[in-house]
Specification:
- The complex is a heterotrimer of chains A (290), B (758) and C (159).
- Chain A has helices spanning 12-21, 35-40, 76-80, 83-88, 90-97, 102-105, 110-115, 124-130, 227-233, 240-253, 264-287; strands spanning 5-7, 26-29, 48-51, 61-64, 67-71, 133-138, 141-146, 151-153, 156-157, 164-169, 177-184, 195-203, 209-217, 224-225.
- Chain A is of the alpha+beta class.
- In chain A, helix 10 (240-253) crosses helix 11.
- Chain B has 758 residues and is an alpha+beta fold.
- Among the domains of chain B are: 28-36 and 459-604, Aldehyde oxidase/xanthine dehydrogenase, molybdopterin binding domain (Aldehyde Oxidoreductase, domain 4, 2-Layer Sandwich), CATH 3.30.365.10; 377-457 and 608-755, Aldehyde oxidase/xanthine dehydrogenase, molybdopterin binding domain (Aldehyde Oxidoreductase, domain 4, 2-Layer Sandwich).
- Chain B is 28% helix and 24% strand.
- Chain B has a 7-stranded mixed β-sheet with strand order 3-5-1-12-9-10-11, sandwiched between helices.
- Chain C is of the alpha+beta class and 159 residues long.
- Chain C folds into 2 domains: 5-80, Beta-grasp domain (Ubiquitin-like (UB roll), Roll); 89-158, DNA polymerase, domain 1 (Orthogonal Bundle).
- Classes of the chains: A alpha+beta (290), B alpha+beta (758), C alpha+beta (159).
- Chains in contact: A-B, A-C, B-C.
Chain lengths: 290, 758, 159
């Protein structure tokens, strides 16, 4: 802490350069709702903090070829106040809305939520279920990767030194698509998810599920994309057997731990229950989207 | 000399103008503008930041402490260790207090203070802490009290031998005391019962959860005079304890109380204050210590967790015949849990003649517990009211009806030896039975639970002063900390006595130099006791006002009465004088005859017991085990609600604290004996979206020992809450929980057990 | 010793300048440097809302913003809520309906409630509860807080 430096570059190139050449520990500061807490509780003592909020690309919500590109440092409030994005991706918005309190959402960002790499991060399951792609920039240039490849373990990402997540590109939204995110917490707000489930479905013209992605949070070292669970829905009309298959595959994919927020046993049970409920909600939204 | 208590003059027909209304409290303006000064809000020139080094081990011998590197760091002005605390015998009250403030021979819990620094900035202070080298010899630890009772458990204190056990073995134990409290003959009683219910219950430790962490500023002059600004529930008690452990004369310590950002019993004992004083003494500069939330959870007093076995018997036509309980309380690293409250209060609302209780207090490697509202009682009422409910079910009687049938009334002799005066338990039960909530049908899919609670309510040593200014306005000085609007309630009583608008009265909380000794703000005693002494002071001032009116009119003193804010001739024989207002008398005579004042020092007695009945409807998500509180009503006897909105606020606040305790609040320890959830993120108190509006019914069965009939209301509202919610959950899922907190995984397990038909 | 940063900012319409260490938060500076102690520290980690302030019109926990980030920003704290002698309707409502007991959570709650009413003049009880979920209160059980907010909102709509 004694040697901490704070920098607030206004260009992506400057930010990358600062991070690439930093010796010691460095951290990217977006909303600070994880970093500052970790500094306050003496979990980390960075030598350099790079504030990325002055970099325009990270702060914009734009339409690109009919799809949304959201800057990694757009705050939760800004995103949930964007009517177009809320209409297209209500499930992602469900997740963002559950990141802490209204005060937290005034600062918290999806980029921070992803790169903090908590297995219980609330915006990540829906982000993965949506099939979002992260644009990463570093000294070697830019690369686009599925968001699920970023977190590799609790508190660890695949980002190399000097790399920053710049933005998220969401796929164009086909007709009859809907997504949802539900989580289990003991209180109604303010808790870390004991289990989180993101479901994204697209229905065909006959109301049969044409595509589905299911993602589980807080039940493994990283947020999981459960392909079997998505497959359990494809070709169905979300009837009881399909929902039961979904619940079983979701539960089977869990590799949870016992910790102060939930036991293994409880998480596995709840994963199945929530997967069903999230699927029903996503389905309802899909049917209302011609 | 007869005291105000003998001639309280309680008159149920007296028309009250101010008492019973809800004026805006005078300290409210500071609270809504941010002006109110709490413990951490004082700044003095040259002030240093104090920070405390804490043991990371739950149990360890402290072999040595090397502070030299810390002292050498530029910006560090003082370092304090156990060497700076006077030596006090182990196992004495003062010795325990000193060792809780800073470890001496051993660190006894994760978070136990072992050293402290004062420096010119927080970052330097934190850096200095890292430079202090403590050599620990780590010992095995024990957290759970039942485990701590086992013969092979690690021993915390060599000197503890179990009190209350005849021929206790002369070897160290963690069982501090065995307390047996009984009356009648339970064997005879149970033999008379047609139905007996017996179960075991357990509760986890929880925290009072005040939003303001402890904060204080200490100064010390070169000649040893100490000033301490702090948030506290007892400035005089703090001062006296500081005298004992720091060996500084009481008259050389002035404790000034700040506004209190919540206490609920948790600020009846000190934490950083002795350390701040020692740092100030060493550095000769003001030192502020404000605890972080993590420190509050790790190292201030939690609320006892318990294990209990409770058994009651009833006849087929609904009369309780006997009650029996065995209780274990954890007190943390040092004795002082007030566990005796539990056997005294747990059954004490029912007309029981045969009761036997055996209670144990056990130490373990956790911070020393501190009081919460109704210390040690809600935990066991959680069980008692479950047993009562089950007895009602088994004999097919309405749960309130069973309680009405067995309600204690005036003249009942309690297990602790006092006989009840007029009490309002029956009235409270009847009010609950007739309230909107209870009469309305239980909504589809929900379950309803009721439970009853009791608290003794206390009096105690209290002092106060009332001064009338030359313009007739009034200032009152009280010593008790204001935890919930006691200042306005006491001002209202003074205004009522003096026949003045309440706006003419202002209350100040005194520091320890400015007023005589006051017991802590606790036991629901404040409005009652400080009210009593201020009323007494007012009546003395009225006597002086009448004396002066007599002088002004040239008539004997007996010829003057006081009514409606004015001195009047007692009869037409005395003379035809127009009434004199307080302002007129004060204006005419202050310069010549001096101040008009009254003061009072009393060990206030006559506090009337309080009773409450709670009704709650819950919904349970049967796939997740999550409980949703849908509707909640608190019915409680206030004797007389001085300030109605304040009283409602006490009921509502207590109920929601109980909801948190019931559903989610608990300390979680790892195998390593360290607290895993020292933050509001994982210590889960109710947030605004977790609870509905809390309806309240104020019952008023006056306490005739008080001039306005009031009873304390602060603690009763927490006593039946967890039991009521557990009873409601039981009504939904078919299994009544017996373990707190009733968190979702535990409820889900019970649902599965119920389905499996167990 | 870490270097200090110079920051110029505006709080409640007044210009301030201060020096801060990089790890100090806006909350630290408001209280310890600017002597604006109305904003409280309940937890330091964003879990209790006692430190709620407005920054450029957004409600945040001041314990989760570095002081060094505040340059050029418009900050509003409880001290700026009353206008001269005139209390904000929310402040009056809390006084009349007893929405404040010990008062430690009150500044944060007032700032948060004002932010809600400014963007949604007619909130439902549920909307108020969820908006205020980040503001812990241990004394009141929230009942009279919610009533005070709803009453103030009603008055402000009618006025």
């Amino acid at each position: 802490m004694i040697s901490l430096k704070y920098e607030a570059p206004s260009s992506l190139g400057d930010a990358i350069a600062l991070l690439a050449r930093a010796s010691g520990t460095s951290r990217v500061l977006a909303g600070g709702t994880d970093i500052i807490v970790q500094m306050e509780t003496d979990l980390i003592e960075p030598d350099l903090v790079v504030d990325i909020k002055k970099i325009p690309e990270l702060r914009e919500i734009a339409i690109e070829n009919g799809a949304f590109r959201v800057g990694a440092a757009v705050t939760g409030m800004e995103l949930t106040d964007h009517p177009g994005f809320c209409k297209a991706w209500p499930g992602v918005v469900d997740g963002v809305k559950l990141i802490g309190s209204m005060q937290i959402k005034g600062r918290a960002t999806m980029g921070g939520n992803l790169c903090n790499a908590s297995p219980a991060a609330d915006s990540v399951p829906a982000l993965i279920a949506a099939g979002a792609v992260a644009r990463v920039a570093g000294t070697d240039g830019t690369r686009d990767v599925p968001v699920e490849s970023i977190p590799i373990g609790p508190g660890k990402t695949s980002l190399r030194k000097g790399e920053i997540v710049v933005s998220f590109l969401f796929p164009p939204r086909p007709a009859r698509s809907g997504d949802a995110y539900l989580r289990m917490t003991p209180r109604t707000e303010m808790d870390i998810a004991v289990v989180g489930v993101g479901v994204n479905v697209t229905l065909d013209a006959d109301g049969v599920c044409a595509a589905a992605r299911v993602s589980l949070g807080a039940v493994a070292p990283t947020v999981l994309l459960v392909e079997d669970a998505g497959a359990a829905l494809v070709g169905s009309r979300l009837d009881t057997p399909a929902l039961d298959r979904l619940a079983r595959t979701a539960a089977a994919a869990c590799r949870p731990i016992d910790d102060k927020r939930g036991t293994r046993e409880y998480r596995i049970k709840v994963a199945g229950v929530l997967a069903k409920r999230a699927a029903v909600l996503a389905w309802e939204r899909a049917r209302q989207n011609p | 000399m007869s005291t105000i208590l003998d001639r309280s003059g309680f008159n149920p027909d007296k028309k009250l103008k101010i008492v019973g209304t809800s004026p805006i409290k005078h300290d409210g303006i500071d609270k809504v503008t941010g002006r109110a000064k709490f413990g951490a809000d004082l700044f003095l020139p040259g002030m240093l930041v104090g920070k405390i080094l804490r043991s990371p081990h739950p149990h360890a011998i402290i072999k040595s402490i090397d502070k030299s590197a810390a002292e050498a760091l530029p910006g560090v002005k003082a370092v304090v260790t156990r060497a700076d605390f006077p030596e006090l015998p182990k196992g004495s009250v003062a010795g325990d207090m000193s060792r809780n403030a800073m470890a001496r021979e051993k660190a006894l819990y994760d978070g136990h203070p072992v050293a402290a620094v004062a420096a010119t900035s927080e970052s330097i202070a934190k850096q200095a802490l890292k430079l202090i080298k403590v050599d620990y010899e780590v010992l095995p630890h024990v957290i759970d009290p039942v485990a701590a009772m086992q013969p092979d458990a690690p021993i915390l204190h060599d000197h503890i031998r179990t009190k209350g056990v005849k021929d206790a073995a002369d070897k160290p134990t963690n069982v501090v005391e065995r307390l047996e409290l009984k009356m009648g003959d339970v064997d005879v009683g149970f033999a008379q019962a047609d139905v007996i219910v017996e179960h075991e219950y357990d509760t986890k430790p929880m925290h009072q959860g005040y939003i303001e962490p402890q904060g204080c500023v200490a100064t010390c002059t070169e000649d040893g005079q100490v000033e301490l600004w702090c948030c506290t529930q007892g400035p005089w008690v703090f001062r006296d304890r500081l005298t004992e452990i720091l060996k500084i004369e009481s008259s050389k310590i002035r404790v000034t109380q700040s506004e209190l950002g919540g206490g609920f019993g948790g600020k009846t004992g000190f934490y950083p204050e002795p350390i701040a004083i020692l740092l100030a003494r060493k550095s000769k500069r003001p030192v502020k210590i404000a605890l972080t939330r993590g420190e509050v959870f790790r190292a201030t007093g939690p609320v006892s967790g318990t294990k209990s076995r409770i058994k009651m018997g009833v006849t087929r036509d609904g009369k309780f015949t006997a009650a029996d309980a065995e209780l274990v309380f954890q007190t943390g690293a040092f004795t002082g849990s007030m566990f005796f409250n539990a056997p005294q209060a747990m059954f004490t609302r029912y007309d029981l003649k045969n009761v036997k209780t055996v209670s144990y207090e056990v130490v373990s490697n956790r911070p020393k517990v501190n009081s919460f509202r109704a210390p040690c009682v809600p935990q066991v009422v959680f069980g008692v009211e479950g047993v009562v409910n089950e007895l009602a079910q088994k004999i097919g009687m309405d749960p309130l009806e069973l309680r009405i049938k067995n309600a204690a009334t005036e003249g009942y002799k309690t297990i602790y030896g006092e006989t009840f005066g007029p009490i309002g338990f029956v009235e409270t039960l009847m009010a609950a039975k007739n309230c909107d909530h209870y009469k309305s049908p239980v909504p589809q899919g929900q379950g309803r639970g009721v439970a009853a609670g009791f608290w003794f309510n206390r009096g105690g040593e209290t002092t106060g002063t009332l001064n009338i200014a030359a313009d007739g306005s009034v200032s009152i000085i009280v010593g008790t900390s204001d935890v919930a609007g006691s200042r306005i309630s006491i001002s209202m009583m003074a205004a009522e006595e003096l026949g003045l608008p309440v706006d003419k009265v202002r209350a100040t909380m005194a520091d320890t130099q400015s007023l005589g000794w006051n017991r802590i703000t606790a036991g629901s005693r404040t409005t009652y006791s400080s009210g009593m002494v201020i009323i007494d002071s007012a009546r003395k001032a009225i006597t002086e006002l009448c004396r002066r009116a007599a002088l002004i009119w040239g008539v004997p003193e007996e010829g003057v009465t006081f009514e409606d804010g004015h001195c009047r001739p007692a009869s037409t024989n005395v003379g035809d004088f127009p009434p004199l207002s307080i302002a007129e008398i004060a204006g005419k005579t202050t310069l010549t005859l001096g101040a008009i004042a009254g003061h009072s020092e009393m060990n206030v007695t006559g506090a009337g017991p309080g009773f409450g009945v709670h009704i709650v409807d819950v919904e349970v998500d049967q796939e997740l085990g999550r409980v949703d509180i849908k509707r909640y009503t608190v019915v409680e006897d206030a004797g007389k609600a001085i300030h109605r909105l304040q009283v409602e606020g006490q009921y509502q606040g207590g109920a929601v604290q109980g909801i948190g305790w019931a559903l989610n609040e608990e300390y979680i320890y790892g195998e390593d004996g360290r607290l895993q959830n020292p933050s509001f993120l994982d210590y889960r108190m109710p947030v605004a979206s977790d609870v509905p509006m809390i309806d309240t019914e104020i019952v008023e069965v006056p306490n005739p020992r008080h001039p306005y009939g009031l009873r304390g209301v602060g603690e009763v509202p927490v006593t039946p809450t967890m039991a009521a919610i557990a009873n409601a959950i039981g009504a939904v899922i078919g299994m009544r929980p017996r373990s707190l907190p009733m968190s979702p995984p535990k409820i889900l397990k019970l649902i599965e057990e119920a389905r499996a038909g167990r | 010793m870490s270097r200090k940063y110079h920051v110029a900012t505006t709080v409640n319409g007044d210009e301030y300048e201060y020096l801060c260490e990089p790890q100090q938060t806006l909350l630290d500076i408001l209280r310890d440097e600017l002597m604006l102690t109305g904003t409280k520290e309940g937890c330091g980690t964003g879990d209790c809302g006692a430190c709620t302030v407005m920054v450029d019109g957004t409600m945040i926990c001041s314990c989760l913003m570095l002081a060094v980030e505040a340059g050029g920003k418009q900050i509003e704290t409880i001290e700026g809520m009353a206008k001269g002698e005139e209390l904000h309707p929310l402040q009056r409502s809390f006084l009349e309906l007893n929405g404040s007991q010990c008062g430690i959570c009150t500044p944060g709650i007032l700032i948060a409630a004002k932010a809600l009413i400014d963007r949604n003049p007619d909130p439902t009880e549920t909307e108020v509860r969820y908006w205020l979920a980040g503001n812990l209160c241990r004394c009141t059980g929230y009942d009279k807080i919610i009533r005070s907010v709803l009453a103030a909102a009603k008055e402000m709509r009618g006025a």
